[in-house]
Each structure stands twice: as structure tokens, then as C-alpha cells.
Specification:
single chain; 288 residues; OB fold (Dihydrolipoamide Acetyltransferase, E2P); 2 domains
Amino acid sequence: MKNKPLSLLRIPYPTDESILSIFVRSLVASLIVVYVMLVFKPFGANAIPGSYRNIILISYSIPTFLSVLITGLVINRVKRGANHSQWVLYKELLAQLLTVFTVAIGNYLHAMLIFNADFSVSNLSRMMWNTLSIAYIPWSGIIILDWIIKFRKDQHFAVALNQKVICSHEANKVTCKPIHLVGKNQNEEIVIPEESILFFKSEANYVSVNYLSESGKITEYLLRSTLKQVEQALANQSNAIVRIHRCFLVNLAQIDETLGNTQGLKLRLKHGDQSIPVSRKFAKSVLL
């Protein structure tokens, strides 16, 4: 029981944050700063001359917005480069601690510019401590709440998608009918039985076609094409092969289970050990 809080901190945290969500979070943070500055007037704000006080206090939203935005974009790049399973809750909380310190530094430099003040390590330290004490606990609460919401949403999607797969198996029996695909290379054509196809994956100028050979071995063929062109070619040939991610098409009949956790949805196939990501955007279209 003593290690339970520590184990919670090691639960995977989502790494698929969009630029739009970072922008919105930056905007919300700047509006919160405006509210706090105007209502509570911290950091000696009452000493600012009355005629310019509100304008100066509102101006702190600018460094706040830029600090959260820039730090968020950098952290997001780090998260995308990291292994998904390695980005856990405590790392996200540390990353947001860096965001809070960046906001403090940005606002301190802003104050230096406005009041034409000299740099002071003690004043900067005081600003960082005050910002940390005011902002970090509620900010961490928002991070944890967001994690809980995403976790429950992904679990819901996983259950619904699993049910959809079961219904698909019953309604659309996958057959041995041949699937014909043509590549951009001269005379390039591949014919695979529908039931043998596992998934298609976008690979730069190629599409990786993963299927079961006649001996039951997982085989990969690189077709010179795009995933969109393959999807269009499949539209009149199969109802069981659908897009579930911007980089993947999958055969619903080959899905063993859909798993939902805090880092999103993943498919586990009946053959092989590769897990395939599912985006919420395409999951919704599959569920329709």
C-alpha cells in the first residue's frame, strides 16, 4: 500500500497532444493570470500607479501566453520523440513544473522591462517561488483531471470498438476473394486473399502490406503507392478493411482485442505481436 502513490506516478501519460490544444492551454493560462492579477493583485501590484495599473497587470498575460506556448511545443516534441511507454505521469508533472518556472522567468523579465529594474537573483527567486506556490498545485490538478478524462474516454472507445468488431465479424464474413492492388511501378500488382490481409501501413512513398502467406507466416510487401490510393482501391473490394489511423488500414476480421489506456487506443491482432494505434477521429467513423 505504501508504494501505491508511487506506482500511480508511473502510469503512462498521453503523448499525442495537438498543437491546437497547446495553443488553447496557453490562452487559458494567460486568462487565468489576468484574473489573478486583477482580482488578487499579488506581488505588490497595489504599488503600481492607479491610472496604469490595470493595463500593466493585463500585460502579464503576454509573457505567460508565450512561455506556456513555447515550453509546451518543446515538451510536445520531446514527448513525440520518446517511447510512448516511457512517458509517464511523473514526467508530465515535472514537465509542467518546468512550464511554471518558465512562466515565472518570463513574467520577471517582463517586469524588469516595464519598471526599468536591474536584474536581481533574489527577486527572480522570489518570483519563481511565488509563482510555484500559486500555480503549480491547481495546474497539477488540471493535468491529473485531464489524464482521468482521457483514460475513461479511451476505455469507452475500446469497449465500443470491440463490440463493433464482434458485430462486423457476424455481419461481414471475410472471404477468400482476391484483393487486387496496383502500385505505381511498372506492371506492379499484388493479389492477396481478403482473409489473409492483416493491415496496411504508410511508409513514406510506399505502403507496407502485411498479410499471412499460404504457410501462415506473416509477410510484408512494399507497394509503391499511398495509403489513400490503397483505401480507394479497397472501397469496392472489401467492407472489412477500414482506416483506423492516419498511417494504418486494418482488417477488422484480424482484430483480437482493442485496448484503451491513458496513451490512447491500440489494436492487438490475432497474428503477430505488433500493436496498432487507433486515432479517436477514425475510431468514431468506424463506430458509425
